[in-house]
Structures are given as structure tokens and as C-alpha cells.
TrEMBL record:
Residues 56-294 form the Xylose isomerase-like TIM barrel domain. It comes from the Bacteria. One of its GO terms (biological process) is inositol catabolic process. Pfam families: AP_endonuc_2. Keywords: Cobalt, Lyase, Manganese. It catalyses: scyllo-inosose = 3D-3,5/4-trihydroxycyclohexane-1,2-dione + H2O. Belongs to the IolE/MocC family. This is Inosose dehydratase. Its EC number is 4.2.1.44. Gene3D superfamilies: Divalent-metal-dependent TIM barrel enzymes (3.20.20.150). Coiled coil: none annotated. Its cofactor is glutathione; Co(2+); Mn(2+).
Length: 298
């Protein structure tokens, strides 16, 4: 299985406070969040909107708890806005993450995205890029990838529900259109399953380019409800579509096996956004940690 010197376990703050739905977990503090991550046995985190932006303050709070920053989300608008606008914001984000010691930068294209539109049915209204937009996205990501490389960092692209890069076919197209030394892939088990893709197939196809992993599970009954009632992505999250690995319909064992066979190196980040009032974040973090230990020995 995984080499403990090459694979590290982290957890995202989104289970404590949801940046996309600020009403979920608004009461949970930054300190509670990172203390509970450490208590559950994780050594890494991504960055949430309650995290201090002053890198000295952030480093001190995290080091007291033995936590490092693995990465943080960046929204690109390469298909809808001038490249320079995205590049300027990307450089600030990159420099912050570099200062925090992160090696990868998570990027998701938000041009035409409906992931944040409260009432847009996620299956029915997902956007599709024109060929011109695909070109803009691919060339723009390569340029951002070069900016990442200036700091010896990697851009990892996050496929996502309700965006133009959601399905396996769209992931394949993006990977085909971009330079593999500049644009890498983030593998998110929850988004692939939500979209109806086969995560094993995606993993096998792109194993060499996967440099960051988000682990989340899906509740099958909620997924059926999302499709039947034409819910939006955010309504799906609120309804409990996502949960921690081992608590839903995904079989993680073959995925862990394939990742380890591909000599995966980097972070495995548990990222299971759900309503913290219904799913206690510490309890679910402990549950996830236990499941991963049982299945991988990590
Ligand atoms: O990586 C992610 C970041 C979140 O903001 C997003 O909506 C979530 O679903 C995700 O996978
Ligand atoms: Co994710």
C-alpha cells in the first residue's frame, strides 16, 4: 500500500465551515476547526475563509497543532474574462501558498459555472464550453501552470459538478489539450461519482497526472433525490449528498490500490462538506481517519 513517507493525510475545513454556503457552520471557529483536525489524527489542511491570511499568524496556529497547508482552491475565469485578471489573482494565491509550504495549487474554471447558483438544477444546467472556450481554458491553464512552476509548484485541475469540466469525457479532453508538464489533475472521488462517472477508469487513464486527491463519499439515496427533484449543487450539499469515505456508496479499496500501484505521492485530503449541525465535524473526521487507517494502513 502507500509509502508513509510519500503520502500524507489531511482534511478540508469545509466540514466545519462551508465557504460555498456560509450558513453551514458559521458558528465554528478557525481554532476549533484546526484543533479538531489534529485531534482526529490529520496532519494537513486546505485553507478556509476563516483562516488568517497573515502567514505568520497562520503558521503559528497550525504548527501548535502539527498541521501543514496542503493547498487551497483557486477560481479561474479563463473562458469569460481577460487572462490577465485571472493571472494577477493567481500570482497572489500562489505566493501565499508557497509561503505556507504548499506544493500544489487547486484550480477550477468558474467561467459559466453553476456550482454557486442556489436554484440551478445541477444535472440539467451544467455548462458546455465552445471549442473557442476550450482553447482559452487550455492555453490559460498552461500559462498558469508556468507561473506555478516558477515556484516549483504544480497546478492541479479540479473537475467539479456544475462546471464545464465535470464528466470523464471533459476531463479527458482537458488533459489531451494541455501540456502534461504544466497541467496536472486533482482526483475528487465525490464529484466523479456524483456525475455518474467511473472513478477507477478516470484514475487508470490519468494516473501519472494525478498530484492531489480529494476523498469524499456519496449518499446514494440523496443522489437519487438530487436527480429526481432537480436540485442544485448547493441544495444537494445541504441535503447531505456528500459524506466521509466509508460512509456512502463508493468502494474506496480499489481506488486506494490503484493509487498506490501508480506510486501516488502527495496528499489524500478528506473533503466531505455536509451540514455540521447534522454531521458533527469531529465525529465524522474521526470516522474518516479510522476508515482510512483500516483500508490503507496510513
Ligand atoms: O474541492 C472542493 C472545494 C469546494 O469549495 C467545492 O465546492 C467542493 O465540492 C470541492 O470539491
Ligand atoms: Co474537491
Amino acid at each position: 500500500m502507500f509509502d508513509k513517507n510519500k503520502v500524507s493525510l489531511g482534511i478540508a475545513p469545509i466540514a466545519w465551515t462551508n465557504d460555498d454556503l456560509p450558513e453551514l457552520g458559521g458558528e465554528n471557529t478557525f481554532e476549533q476547526c484546526i484543533s479538531e483536525m489534529a485531534l482526529a489524527g490529520f496532519i494537513g489542511s486546505e485553507v478556509g475563509n476563516k483562516y488568517p491570511r497573515d502567514t505568520n499568524i497562520l503558521k503559528r496556529a497550525l504548527s501548535l497543532r502539527g498541521i501543514s497547508i496542503a493547498s487551497a482552491w483557486f477560481s479561474s475565469f479563463l473562458t469569460t474574462r481577460p487572462y490577465e485578471e485571472t493571472a494577477e489573482a493567481f500570482i497572489g494565491h500562489r505566493d501565499f501558498l508557497h509561503e505556507m509550504g504548499a506544493k500544489v495549487i487547486v484550480v477550477a474554471e468558474q467561467g459559466h459555472s453553476i456550482q454557486g447558483i442556489t436554484d440551478a438544477p445541477v444535472f440539467e444546467k451544467k455548462p458546455f464550453f465552445t471549442e473557442r472556450e476550450w482553447e482559452q481554458l487550455a492555453r490559460g491553464l498552461e500559462s498558469l501552470g508556468k507561473l506555478a512552476a516558477e515556484k516549483r509548484m504544480k497546478l492541479v485541475y479540479h473537475h467539479h459538478m456544475g462546471t464545464g469540466v465535470q464528466t470523464a469525457a471533459e476531463i479527458n479532453k482537458l488533459m489531451d489539450m494541455t501540456d502534461p508538464s504544466l497541467v496536472y489533475l486533482l482526483f475528487d472521488t465525490g464529484h466523479l461519482t456524483f456525475s455518474g462517472e467511473n472513478p477507477e477508469e478516470v484514475l487508470l487513464t490519468h494516473a501519472g497526472r494525478i498530484k492531489h486527491v480529494h476523498l469524499k463519499d456519496i449518499r446514494r439515496d440523496i443522489l437519487q433525490k438530487v436527480s429526481k427533484e432537480q436540485l442544485s449543487f448547493l441544495q444537494a450539499v445541504k441535503a447531505g449528498a456528500f459524506t466521509v469515505p466509508g460512509d456512502g456508496m463508493i468502494d474506496f479499496e480499489p481506488l486506494f490500490n490503484l493509487l498506490s500501484k501508480a506510486n501516488y505521492q502527495g496528499w489524500l485530503i478528506v473533503e466531505a462538506e455536509q451540514d455540521p449541525a447534522l454531521a458533527n465535524p469531529l465525529e465524522y473526521a474521526i470516522k474518516a481517519r479510522k476508515y482510512i487507517r483500516e483500508k490503507t494502513g496510513l
